[in-house]
Design a protein that fits this description.
The protein has 126 residues and is an all-alpha fold. The protein has helices at residues 3-23, 25-31, 38-61, 69-95, 102-122. The protein has one domain. The chain is globular, with a radius of gyration of 15 Å.
Length: 126
């Protein structure tokens, strides 16, 4: 398992979601069975901007040496943000805040969180 694969995969996925949240927040909300007001559209667009930032950082760092302190910082950031995202999405899905598609978000946060945690805690750089 290579970190480059996970950085690339996460960059592509959050990039797609980020662009969607910025350009078509109402359509994405409706896919999840949610309705949003203008303030929700604003928050979705800001959230999308954060996803686009994450995509750019991960894409740019995908060839970085894992022993680099910056790479380690990126991995820590992804683990922390994915842990928070997993908890928030799990609670929202269990509460019925959005429809069954919410489980996709739960799964994505869990898979990427565990993958990056593996590189942080288990597989040490060579």
């Amino acid at each position: 398992m290579k970190l480059k694969f996970w950085m690339t995969a996460k960059a592509v996925i959050v990039g797609i979601f980020g662009i969607g949240f910025v350009l078509i927040p109402l359509a994405l909300a409706s896919l999840y069975g949610m309705s949003v007001d203008p303030a929700g559209v604003l928050m979705s667009r800001l959230f999308g901007a954060g996803f686009i930032l994450e995509a750019i950082v991960l894409w740019s760092a995908r060839n970085t040496d894992r022993s680099d302190v910056v790479c380690r910082g990126i991995i820590i950031g992804v683990v922390v943000s994915n842990t928070i995202g997993f908890i928030v999405c799990l609670l929202a899905t269990l509460a019925g805040t959005w429809n069954a598609l919410g489980w996709l978000s739960v799964a994505l946060y869990l898979v990427f969180g565990l993958a990056f945690a593996y590189f942080l805690f288990v597989k040490k750089p060579s």
